[in-house]
Amino acid sequence: MDLPEDLAAELAAFGDRLASATDLGAATRDKYRRNTAAFLTWLTDAREAGALDGDPLTDPAARDWAVRDCRRTLKNTRTARGTHLGAATVNNRLAAVDAFFALRGSGRPTTARPSARMCCATPSAPTSCAAAANSPPNRSTWSWWRS
């Protein structure tokens, strides 16, 4: 899908600002540009569907709601393997959207991010990660190591 003129101009300006205002590497700048293009494509679809309350490029509240809705779409997106996008992937894509709004002077969206923390605690063994990391392994693990 081609972007409308206003969003295509925003994407081009973002690419220029990203190159001049940050010290990000070329691969990271390219990833940010691709992820921002995906967000602007999503924004175009949302505009056409009438799913936006205001203009996310000018209204901070509309911006925050648009980013939240996009985050929900990302979290529900299925990969080619049939799994959902991981929290780290969603966060990487949202980082590009944050940079887009920050570099255009609109301010960063206030949107919660999915937690990408890995923890070893489970409902059946509610041990904190720190406690588990500092505790010795159980006897069966010791015997396996010795053999």
From TrEMBL:
It comes from the Bacteria. Keywords: DNA-binding. This is Core-binding (CB) domain-containing protein. It comes from Nocardiopsis codii.
